[in-house]
Design the sequence.
């Protein structure tokens, strides 16, 4: 496997992930507009949304019950996961190529990502 | 404004932002944040949250197309992501202790200089080094890219300078919720002497990973609101798909000009907003 082939696979995977995320966000968006289209909205003052929409377990639970905002957030979480998957796939590819230097480089990037995502939860 | 009107207006703005973001390697966020805050009066925190989402959508959505054309360089991207992700984590920490409008003004001034160089002092494509320097060879960063029907080899220089700039790009991303693709392109194009199209596409490939490093924090703080982020993400994605198609056909000189004016506009927005305490 050469770099070009590896990059193509990663690129296609990213696109599939983004399309899936977009489909989920769109479904949530349609549900949201069906219910709330004529409601007046104002985002002038920041108020943190309800706690379940801000944590991973809460989002999964709301999305499973087909809550509109929960579905949108779940789609966005899928989107956030695509770059993380890209690093994991690149790591696997470098391992297949037995490219030790870039296996280590990818591991460092992955460690930083996991560290910061863990800090957030 | 009703929810339906808001959704439609934000979708159109975001589609434009995604188009420019993919075309220039900047990411959609730099256009989304000022327009949402200035034109629609959306609180900067919602705008920054939606911006971060748009940055990831632009990056991941356009990656497949760039890769197929053979422009982006995964080794350069991965090596420099060490700097951008660590920078993003530190930037997120710094966000709590530094006034962001001071940083916005400094960033704006740096970008005005970069815009000037991009438009007026562009090195012609032919002047790019074929050979890498010592560190460039050590990390095997040199590669080739399609140019006028053949594969053109290129070398990579000044890795430490590029790495340092990338650390700054990551810190700004964590601090301001942007992809900071502008600084990434400058680091690769101007410091590391990487061909412009390779720089913009590799930058586009990198900004998603950088943004993901701060996305968890943003989600947890409630900056990512579903009703704001939904039209932004869907709009940016549509625009990015179109922007990618134009990039492959566009000439480098035109790209530099577009890039220069986009970052100049961004710089002025940053300075004005910073001075008025809005960022």
Sequence:
């Amino acid at each position: 496997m050469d770099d070009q082939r590896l990059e193509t696979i990663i690129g296609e995977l990213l696109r599939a992930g983004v399309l899936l995320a977009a489909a989920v966000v769109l479904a949530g968006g349609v549900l949201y507009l069906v219910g709330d289209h004529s409601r007046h909205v104002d985002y002038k003052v920041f108020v943190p949304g309800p706690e379940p929409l801000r944590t991973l377990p809460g989002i999964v639970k709301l999305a499973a019950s087909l809550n509109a905002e929960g579905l949108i957030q779940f789609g966005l979480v899928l989107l956030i996961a695509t770059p993380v998957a890209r690093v994991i796939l690149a790591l696997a590819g470098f391992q297949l190529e037995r490219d030790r230097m870039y296996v280590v480089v990818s591991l460092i990037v992955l460690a930083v990502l996991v560290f910061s995502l863990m800090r957030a939860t | 404004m009703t929810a339906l009107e808001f959704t439609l207006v934000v979708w159109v703005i975001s589609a434009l932002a995604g188009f420019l973001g993919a075309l220039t390697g900047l990411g959609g966020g730099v256009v989304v944040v000022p327009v949402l805050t200035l034109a629609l009066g959306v609180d900067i925190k919602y705008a920054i949250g939606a911006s971060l989402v748009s940055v990831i959508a632009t990056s991941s959505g356009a990656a497949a197309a760039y890769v197929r054309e053979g422009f982006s360089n995964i080794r350069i991207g991965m090596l420099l992501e060490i700097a951008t992700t660590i920078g993003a984590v530190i930037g997120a920490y710094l966000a709590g202790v530094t006034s962001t409008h001071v940083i916005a003004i400094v960033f704006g001034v740096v970008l005005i200089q970069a815009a000037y160089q991009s438009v007026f002092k562009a090195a012609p494509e032919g002047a790019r080094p074929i050979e890498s320097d010592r560190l460039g060879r050590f990390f095997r960063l040199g590669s080739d890219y399609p140019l006028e029907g053949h594969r053109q080899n290129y070398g990579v220089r000044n890795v430490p300078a590029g790495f340092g700039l990338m650390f700054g790009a990551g810190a700004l991303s964590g601090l301001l919720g942007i992809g900071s693709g502008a600084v990434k392109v400058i680091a690769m194009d101007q410091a590391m002497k990487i061909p412009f199209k390779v720089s913009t596409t590799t930058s586009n490939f990198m900004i998603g990973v950088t943004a993901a490093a701060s996305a968890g924090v943003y989600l947890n703080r409630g900056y990512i609101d579903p009703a704001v982020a939904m039209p932004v993400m869907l709009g940016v994605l549509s625009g990015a798909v179109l922007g990618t198609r134009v990039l492959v056909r566009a000439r480098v000189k035109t790209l530099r000009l577009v890039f220069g004016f986009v970052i100049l506009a961004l710089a002025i927005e940053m300075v004005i907003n910073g001075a008025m305490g809005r960022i």
About this structure: The radius of gyration of chain B is 18 Å.
